[in-house]
Specification:
Blueprint: E1 3-7, E2 10-13, E3 18-25, E4 33-39, E5 46-51, E6 68-73, E7 78-83, E8 92-99, H1 105-111, E9 117-118, E10 122-127
Parallel strand pairs: 2-10
Antiparallel strand pairs: 1-3, 3-7, 4-5, 4-8, 6-7, 8-9, 8-10
Length: 128
């Protein structure tokens, strides 16, 4: 059984940094394309960082480009989302999603639906 667990959320000062983690059990990360999504209160679900199953160049929307960075540690079966220069608009519940290949990173982030597995999310609060 595949399980996805996000962690690392919390309260961050605007302009500060936070690193989110997503640990997968039950299946190797290399089997999936991976996407980080967020759901701000009262707003739409948004893809903020997506990579295809071959771990190509990550896709970032303009809202986070230059501030967020996707990375992974295959040995730990974990992916990360480094958030720098955090803004008030970044406050949301962040989810890690796994997608069955083949996938295209940009298509994943823009489609918002179609993922095979996801976690319960980790909440990011921004104090401005």
């Amino acid at each position: 059984q595949v399980q996805v667990v996000e962690s690392g959320g919390g309260l961050v000062q605007a302009g500060g940094s936070l690193r989110l983690s997503c640990t997968v059990s039950g299946s190797p990360l290399s089997s999936y394309a991976i996407g980080w999504f967020r759901h701000p209160l009262g707003k739409e679900f948004e893809g903020v960082s997506c990579v295809d199953e071959s771990y190509g160049v990550p896709y970032y929307p303009d809202s986070v480009k230059g501030r967020f960075t996707f990375s992974r540690d295959n040995a730990k079966n974990t992916v990360y989302l480094q958030m720098n220069n955090v803004k008030a608009d970044d406050m949301a519940n962040y989810y890690c999603t796994l997608w069955n290949p083949p996938m295209t990173a940009q298509v994943m982030c823009k489609s918002r639906v179609g993922f095979a597995y996801w976690g319960r999310g980790t909440q990011v609060f921004v104090h401005s």
